[in-house]
Write a structure and sequence with these properties.
Blueprint (H helix, E strand, L loop, with lengths): L4 H11 L11 H6 L16 E7 L7 E7 L6 E7 L9 H15 L2 E5 L11 H15 L6 E11 L1 H16 L6 E5 L10 H6 L7 H11 L24 E6 L5 H13 L4 E6 L14 H18 L8
Parallel strand pairs: 3-4, 3-5, 5-6, 6-7, 7-8
Antiparallel strand pairs: 1-2, 2-4
Amino acid sequence: MPLDPQAQAFIERASSRPAPPPGSVPLADFRAAVRAMSALDYDLQEVAEVRDVVIPRAGADDLTVRVYRPAGDGPLPIAVWAHGGSWVRGDVEASDRAWRLVANESGCIVVGVEYALAPESPFPGPLEDVYDAAVWARDHAEEIGGDARRLIIAGESSGGGVAAGVALLARERGGPEFAQQVLIVPLLDATLSSPSWQELGEDYMLTRPQLEWALGLYAPGVDPSDGLLSPALADDLSGLPPALIVTGEYDPLRDDGERYAQRLEAAGIPATHVRYAGMIHHAVLAPKAIELGRTAYVETARALGRAVGSGTQVGA
């Protein structure tokens, strides 16, 4: 299918202002640039409750999570969510509107994790942060109105890779047990060697030089085929939770998610894969510019609600 017309226009506008080479601007400025996307973000939705929780940890810095509880009788499923940002930028505030939408549309409590970024916290630091948040969500499920038996691990883009890595960690460590993993346009192969990278890695916003630079900060010296860094390449995918995986036709990460879904199914794990025709990676980050991005998020949230039986999702 042709590229979505709104995505084409978005790319053309962005291309009219040539981006500086990766690493050529101070990291603080690169992180602050996320705020420039705020005008294209989701509308602000009210949810029944939002609260920030500080989780104390022995031998590690305290961890902050933001808990979004939608309206509805509990106990509700709990989705522990890792934001995107190429491991080096993004935060709870930047993901606030998307997580509100997910909570309302899925009928699930969303626990957004303020994991530490690279290079200050390189691999596997973010995985450990999100893992600890999942343990906290399981142990405090009743306190937040949630159901520990319907615990979900989720993320988008690089956060999707973190989420899939956390599912592997949980399997290795004997818990927590996840009922579902939800991965939206996930980065699951740090070798960046798939056919979709060869096809789409230059002209569709997300580029190979950008990801190579970010990987150099996040996982310097790490074998890119390490299963926790590249879950699509992990030796064994048995015993993992069922997966809901979203990819975009014009996303260089497309093959990451699709190959992971195929490997999960080969390992006997139910995997639902949805490819959005015409969609670029950044669509989910700019829903007011690319309506297809909002459609993908809403439909995925509703599908999550159905998968875990929240019974309260909008539009079900």
